[in-house]
């Protein structure tokens, strides 16, 4: 069993609630109130989990400025009241931020018993 300190519980709770509200907002056909709350919780939870200084350094790296601009611009557009356009910006920015990480994840999933078989089927991944 993993024991967490109270501050870690709050940090993980904020991030979890953010993901929940974002998912639920998309399921309910891009409800702008749920998406806005989810964005605020997710960004706040992320900032507390990895630390404010690391968050600032991550979001303001020179090579990732385009990705961060799309992601934070999407958050702003959702908060203004255009949820569909904002979520498209956010998803595009998220993929730009973590595009190098996705290959690592696919490589790891390829080594798992069931998922590796599925990824090696013709026409799926390679």
Please write out the topology:
Blueprint: H1 6-27, H2 32-50, H3 52-59, H4 65-80, H5 83-97, H6 99-110, H7 113-119
Helix pairs in contact: 1-2, 2-3, 4-5
Structure at a glance:
With 126 residues, the protein is an all-alpha fold. It is 79% helix and 0% strand.
Structure description:
The structure is a single chain. The longest helix has 22 residues, at 6-27. This protein has 126 residues and is mostly helical. Helix 1 (6-27) runs antiparallel to helix 2, helix 2 (32-50) crosses helix 3 and helix 4 packs antiparallel against helix 5 (83-97). It is built from 7 helices and no strands. It has 2 domains: 1-59, no CATH class; 63-126, no CATH class.
Q: What is the number of domains? A: 2
Q: In angstroms, what separates the terminal alpha carbons?
A: 38 Å
- Biggest sheet details: none
Mean residue pLDDT? 86
**Into which percent range does the helicity of residues fall?**
over 70%
**Class by helix and strand content?**
mainly alpha
Q: Count the strands?
A: 0
State Rg: 17 Å
Oligomer: single chain
Family: Belongs to the GOT1 family.
Organism: Neomonachus schauinslandi (Hawaiian monk seal)
InterPro entries: Got1, Vesicle_transpt_Got1/SFT2
Function: May be involved in fusion of ER-derived transport vesicles with the Golgi complex.
